[in-house]
Amino acid sequence: MTIQERLSQTALPLVPWLPDIVRTLQEKRRLILRSEPGSGKSTLVPLALLEQPGSIVMLEPRRIAAIGIANRMAELLEEPVGQTVGYAVRMERRVSAATRIEVLTEGLLVRRLQSNPELPGVSTIIFDEFHERSLFTDLSFALVLDLCRIKSDLKILVMSATLDCGAIAERINESEGREGPDRVPILECPGNLFPIETEYQSLKIGESTVQCCARTLHNLIDEMTTQGGSRGSSYVSHQRDAAKGLDSQHKPAILVFLPGKGEIRSVVEVLGDVGPEWEVLPLHGSLPLAEQRRVLQGAGPGKGRIILSTNIAETSLTVPDVSIVVDTGLVRLQRYHLRTGMDRLSLDLASTQSVDQRRGRAGRLGPGRCIRLWAPQDERPAFAEPEIRRLDLASLVLECALWGAAEPENLPWLEMPPRPAWDGAKQLLIDLGALDRQGKPTQRGKQIAYLALHPRLAMLALAGLEGGNPVLGAVLAALLSERDPSGIENEADIRLRLEAFSDASQRVRFRFVIDLAEDILNRLGRHEHHTTQETETTQSMPSGTKNQSFNKDTSGQFFHCTQAMMEEAGELLARAFPDRIGKRQESGVYRFMSGREASLRGRLIHSEWVVAPDMDAGDRNGVIYLAAPLPEPLAMELLAPHVSKELSIIWNGLVPKARETTMAGRLVIREEIRKCDPAELKGALPALLKREGLDILPWDEEAEAYTGSQQLRGQQPHHGPRQKATARQLLDRIRFWIQHQSGEDGPQRSRQWTDESLIAEADEWLGPFIWNGKSNGSGPIITASSLYHALTERLGWTALHHLDESVPPLFISPAGTARWIDYHSGEPIVSLKIQEVYGLSESPLIMGIPLTFELLSPAGRPIQITRDLGHFWTGSYAEVRKEMRGRYPKHDWPEDPSHAPAHTQVHSRVAKS
C-alpha cells in the first residue's frame, strides 16, 4: 500500500489538499498553510512530503506533542517509531539511519543549527503550530531564514489552525526579496468535519471561576447519565448514544481549560467525588512525561474522563474521546520583569485565537459542545502575545551571539526583539562571563550553550563542577529547569527537595529530574570540542568526580544528600543568581538588589540571608517559591561588585547626624549613624537650604559684629565699637546697596545676593564657617556670629568698606542716641521717639533715598511716618504737638523742633551718600 493510499484511508479533511500542498511547496519552496483543528495537517502533510527527496524536520513547541505526533505518523506507516519517522526531545531520541521525518522541539533545532548550519540531507523544515510563537520558535524561524541565504534549496512550510498568514508571508517576502508571482503562497484548507455547539455561561454573582467550573461539570455529568432530556440536537443524540449503560466501550471525555496548576487543584477539591464512573485527571507541563502520556492514552471501558488542563492541550495534542470542552477563557502567562530581573505570572484573558483552538478540540471525533464561562460580548485580544515580547531573552541573545548576530538587526525576525529586553539580557550574559564587552561569546559562553540550559542554570552546573561538587550543581540545575515535582507545599527550602530527591522511594516522582541531572553530568564530562548535536552517547565525568556520579544499583540509592552538600547549595545557587540574594527586613520579607521585596513560607523565615532562584516578582510584592540560606560573609563576597556607599545627613534644625548606608543596588546591607565631618556637611548645605529655606539660618539672632565706620548723624564719621548686630540687618544693607548702585562697575552684582544664589552657592560662602571653621563639632553648625562673618567674607573687605561708607547701619540722633536703620523693605527706615530728632530740620539721604522716620510717642506708640521731616515740622506737627502736650505734659513739645533746645541741639549735617 502506497503512502498516499494510507493517508486516504484516514478520511481526514486535508487528504484532498495534499497534492496541492506538495506541489506548491516543491515549486515555491515556501508555503503558509492554515487549516482548522482536526484536519490532519500535523500527521498527513509530513508523510505526504516523503514522496520528495531529502529528509524532513518538523518543529513542535511541546515535548509531549512531538512524541505523540511521531507515534501517530509511525502508526499510519505501520512501523515502529525510529524507522521512517522518529523524534527528538530533551532526554529522549528515537531515530535511525532510515529516519526521514524527525519531529523536534525548537531548542534542539537551534542546537543542530549551531553545530552544523548546513543541515546536510535536510530538504524541508516544517514549523507546526506556529501561532504559539514560543521564544525558540521565533529564534528558529529567524535562523532558518538566515540560513536560506546560503542554502537556497531548503523548503520552509509554516502551519497552524489560527495564524496571521499574511504577516508571516510578508516577512519571508521581505527577507528574501520576493515579488510578484514569486511571493510566498498561502493555502487555506478546510478542517473540522463535525459541528460544535457553543454556549456561554457567565459567572453568577459572588461565584469564582473555580466554583463556576465545578458547577458546570456537575451539570454535565447529570446530563450524560440521564437518558431523558429536551434538547434534540445532533450533539445530544450522539452523547446519549455514547452514554447509554456503563458497559459502553468509551464514555465521552470532558476537556476543561484552566489557567494554571493551582486552579486545577482547586477544581478537584471543589468538584469532590464524582462517582466511580468518572476519572478526574490533571494535564499540565509540570507533570512527568509518563503521566502526560497516560492522559493521552484514553480511558478504560465504561469510564468517563474529566481532563483538567492548562493550555498545553490547546493544540497538537489529541486527547481521546473528547466531545465536550469547558473553557474558562483564562490563561496564566509568564512575564519577565525587566527592572527586577525576575519573572512574574499574570492571569490574562486568553486570545480569540486561543479560545478558537480550544473550541476545536470538541469536534474532532463527532458533533461537539463548547461551554464558555464568560459573556459573549466580553472583549479579548485577537492574538496571544508572543514570548519574545514578555520573556527573559538571555538564552536567545546567547544563541544569536554564537550564530554571529551580535545585534538583533542582524537577523530576519518575524518580530524584532524589544531593545530594552535584549540589552538587559546582554548585560546579564556579560555579568555571567558568557559574553565579552563587545558582545562576542566567550569560551564560558560556549560551555553554557552546550549544556542546553538557561544561562543561569548552566552557570549553576558549572559552579558545581568548578567547586568540586558537580552532582549537586547538576541536580540543582535539573530541579530548577523543571517545575517542582516534589509535591512539597508551603515550604520554600530547596534543601527539602534535595532530601526528597535522595529518597529512593521518590524515584518515580523525580524520574525526569534524575535523567536530566545525569544528562547535565554527562555534558559536563564531555570534551569541550565535542559536537553539540543531541545524541544518546554518555561519557564519563572528568577525573576526580567518578565517586559523585549517580549510583543506580538495586538499592535505588541514586543520590545521597549529605549535610555538607546541603550547606553548599546556597553558595552554588548564589553564584548563578547573585541578583537573587535577599536580606531579611524587619517586616519579615526579603529585599533584593532590584528593590523588590518578597515573602517566603517555611523554615527559612528567620534566615538573615537567602538566595531565591525561583520566585514570582508579583505586581508590587513577590513570592519566593524556592530558596536556600546563605552565610553573611558569602553574601557580602558575592554582592561586593555591586556595593556602594551612600551618605545622607539627618537634620534636626541645624544639628546634623551622618547616616552612612552600605547598598548593593537598592538593597540596604547596613546603616551607621555617626558624627558628621564638616567636608560632608559643606556639600549638603545647598540641599538643606533648598528644602527648608534660608529662614532655617539664625538671621535674627544678635551677633558680636563690627558694625562699620560710618554712622548716619550730624557729625564727622568715626570708628564705632563692636556691637550686637544681626545677619539679616547686614544682608538687607547689602541688598539695598547693590540695588541703588549706578553703572556697570559696581563691586557686587544683584544675582549673587538673591535667595536663589545664596542657596545654590551655600557650600562656597557658608561652608567654611561650619562650626566656626573647626574640624569637628556638635550642636548647630551655623551660629549667628558665623553667619554674620560668612556674609562679610562673601562681600569682601573692600566692598564692606564701601558698604559702610554708603549704607550706614545706625542713625545717630541729634540727642546722641543710636538706632538701627531697617533696610528690609528696600527703603531705609528708622524708628525712634520724636524728641530724639529735635534739632534735625530735614530727612537725611542714603544713596539718594530719604531716610524714613517712624516717630514714636514717649510711650513708644507710633505717631507719624514721614520721609520728609522738614515738611512734617512745618505741617502736621502742630496737630501732633497739640495732642501730645495733653497726654504727655512733662515732655518738651517745642513749637519749632527743627531748632532743638540748647541741651539737645547739635550740628545738623547729613552724611554724604
From TrEMBL:
Gene3D superfamilies: 1.20.120.1080, P-loop containing nucleotide triphosphate hydrolases. It holds the Pfam family HrpB_C. Residues 527-553, 889-913 are annotated as: Disordered. It comes from the Bacteria. Residues 540-553 have a biased composition (Polar residues). GO terms for molecular function: ATP binding; helicase activity; hydrolase activity; nucleic acid binding. Residues 245-404 form the Helicase C-terminal domain. Residues 889-898 have a biased composition (Basic and acidic residues). The keyword Hydrolase applies. This is ATP-dependent helicase HrpB. It comes from Gracilinema caldarium (strain ATCC 51460 / DSM 7334 / H1) (Treponema caldarium).
